[in-house]
Amino acid sequence: MKYDYLIVGSGLFGATFAYKAKKAGKRCLVIDKRPQLGGNVYCENIEGINVHKYGAHIFHTNNKKVWDFVNSIVEFNRYTNCPVANYKGKLYNLPFNMNTFYQMWGVKTPAEAVAKIEEQKAEAVAALNGREPQNLEEQALTLVGKDIFEKLIKGYTEKQWGRSCTELPAFIIKRLPVRLIFDNNYFNDKYQGIPEGGYNKLIDGLLEGIETKTSVDFFKEYKDNWREIADKLVYTGAVDEYFDFKLGKLDWRTVSFQTRVEDTPNFQGNAVVNYTEREVPYTRVIEHKHFEMFGQAVYDCPKTVVSEEYSTEYKDGMEPYYPVNNDKNNALAEAYRQLAEKEKDVIFGGRLGTYKYYDMAPVIEIVLNMDI
Ligand code: FAD
Ligand code: UDP
């Protein structure tokens, strides 16, 4: 029997698409080359803890329609992301707010903080002489000044992107909030949280009643004959791979994780601790249980799982995580997008299929707004 859609990839794009298509009475087959469903939000249970195997995922959105939709599949908890930065053993709250300014300079009021920030950024503002900041270093120095740049931004950013702050675009840092209130909530969005019971519940809910196959690579099993089994293809793999890299290979940045079990119920007291000095090789340490366990529940689970994150240059065979934002890759991605538009009966979607960095909520929003 023929399917309406063959969906390549069971991440949030593919799974949400399949859910909507099923509601519209369509028949779908979802395949994934990984041994499990869920794409990058998949969690592995270790010692009773949901471990975010492909990187820590915190759901946040301002879009009520998206929030209501995901909560109709599984209820979300009250997790609020409040990362802490460790610079040479001293701790600072993030994002940059009155707590950070107090820890950095001892200032206690917004007026004192403003005066200190003005003093800190005066030199960089004068150097610009009226022009716009042209790179991340200039942007950061004119936003928060030299102490915060040196201690909380420079090392972390250079580790994360593998390039000097003077070679990185200014916009990367613009998304970090600077607040003159005591508020450690990393996101400005109205809604945030983690699915109760973990992300696999969200994926299982979306894919309930839908045919799925894991450990199946589209290119090995379906590329040449998919039209025999489906009317349309939804493709969420890498766009350059679909076209056999014929215009060249897109670059990615990836992350590798060193995950271990610690024999203590509470290792670092927070889900996310960033290590902002250059000398510590990892960018941050994730303690997964704090995404879903609060209060006494932390201690009712005797062990804990922590992951160090190392930002790495992508090589063949690694997981492609972040699109690289430079002229060469943007132009190549655009050329592939033009090829994709001409491909008959194929919908390219998601992070890999469009070579765009999307948070989870925008991916879901795009699918919710599609005509299926
Ligand atoms: P994916 O989840 O990557 O799914 C694509 C699927 O396609 C994969 O399962 C893959 O195996 C499969 N596939 C690829 N090629 C083939 C093939 N040839 N055959 C069969 N299957 C194939 N967003 C947030 O909102 N908050 C966060 O905190 C956050 N943290 C992140 C941290 C990291 C390290 C990364 C990389 C991303 C993060 N994101 C976060 C973004 C989030 O992961 C994406 O928005 C989401 O995963 C997009 O879903 P997707 O379906 O497009 O892609
Ligand atoms: N950043 C930083 N210090 C930190 C956290 C973030 O300098 O402790 C910078 C870094 O350049 C990063 C950018 O802020 O790329 C955006 O951070 P965010 O956490 O939003 O990025 P993500 O890890 O989600 O891509």
Describe the structure in your own words:
This protein has helices spanning 12-23, 64-73, 98-105, 110-128, 136-143, 146-161, 171-174, 199-207, 218-221, 226-229, 239-242, 296-300, 327-342, 350-354, 360-368; strands at residues 3-8, 28-31, 43-46, 49-52, 59-61, 84-87, 90-93, 191-193, 211-213, 230-235, 252-262, 272-275, 284-287, 304-313, 322-323, 346-348. It is an alpha/beta fold. Among the domains are: 3-77 and 191-251 and 323-368, NAD(P)-binding Rossmann-like Domain (Rossmann fold), CATH 3.40.50; 100-174, no CATH class. Strands 7-6-12-13-14-11-15 form a 7-stranded mixed sheet. Strand 3 (43-46) and strand 4 form a beta hairpin. Helix 1 (12-23) runs parallel beside helix 15 (360-368) and helix 4 (110-128) runs antiparallel to helix 5. The relative contact order is 0.21. The structure holds flavin-adenine dinucleotide and uridine-5'-diphosphate (UDP). Uridine-5'-diphosphate binds at residues 85, 94, 152-153, 156-157, 160, 172-173, 175-176, 274, 276.
